[in-house]
Amino acid sequence: MNLWNNPVWNQLQHMQHEMNRLFDRWTGEGARALGLASAQPAVNMWEEDDHLYVEAELPGLDQTRLEILVTGGNQLTLKGERKAKAPDKAVAHRQERGFGSFSRMLTLPVVVDPDKVEARLENGVLHIKLAKHDAVKPRKIIVKSE
Q1: Could you tell me the CA-to-CA distances from 35 to 30, 93, 94 in Å, in that order?
Q2: Using an 8 Å Cβ cutoff, are 55 and 44 in contact?
Q3: In the 3-class helix/strand/coil scheme, how is the chain assigned residue by residue?
Q4: Which whole-number Å values give the CA distances from 1 to 4, 8, 53, 57, 67, in the listed order?
Q5: Contact residues for 62 (Cβ-Cβ < 8 A; gap 6+)
Q6: What count of other Cβ atoms lies within 10 Å of the Cβ of residue 56?
Q7: What residues does 48 pair with on adjacent strands?
Q8: CATH entry, 39-85+98-136, from 3.40.50.1220, 3.40.50.300, 3.40.630.30, 2.60.40.790
Q9: Smallest Cα–Cα separation from 42: which of 82, 92, 93?
Q10: How far, in Å, CA of 131 to CA of 30, rounded?
Q11: Where are the domains of the chain?
């Protein structure tokens, strides 16, 4: 049986998604509603042809403080630290952008090839292109006749 099509596996993935949503409420939009800012970057992910694409908002991040990991074939981890720009003695009147260390793990919808990952930080947005692993790409089967 293929692990990715296993009903138990699908239920576990659904439960993980729901738990992530719950915790995102307190580290993302929910925290902002309470006047707190999270260092967690907002992320978009989509799939097109043989690639997955991930974009993360990281304004003010020094790329030397960024680490990107692909583990287990379908786990993408973004780690980094954004430093506050305000002087130490300044009085903050509003802080909607979060600062500090973050670690964000995303479960990818397919297995990717960790040797075929491209990343660039451009205008405060991290762009990641991940090639799907050959094992998950459709293969055309040639039918032989006798």
Answers
A1: 9, 11, 9
A2: yes
A3: CCHHHCHHHHHHHHHHHHHHHHHHHHHCHHHHHCCCCCCCCCEEEEEECCEEEEEEECCCCCHHHEEEEEECCCEEEEEEEECCCCCCCCCCCCCCCCCEEEEEEEECCCCEEEEEEEEEEECCEEEEEEEECHHHCCCCCCCCCC
A4: 9, 12, 28, 38, 35
A5: 83
A6: 26
A7: 51
A8: 2.60.40.790
A9: 82
A10: 33
A11: 1-36, 39-85+98-136
User: 45-104 pLDDT, tens per residue?
Assistant: 999 999 999 999 998 888 898 999 999 889 999 999 888 776 778 887 777 777 788 899
Q: What is the pTM of this model?
A: 0.68
Which tens digit of pLDDT belongs to each residue from 1-28?
455 567 777 787 778 777 766 665 555 5
The candidate with the shortest Cα–Cα distance to 108, out of 79, 71, 139, 137, is 71
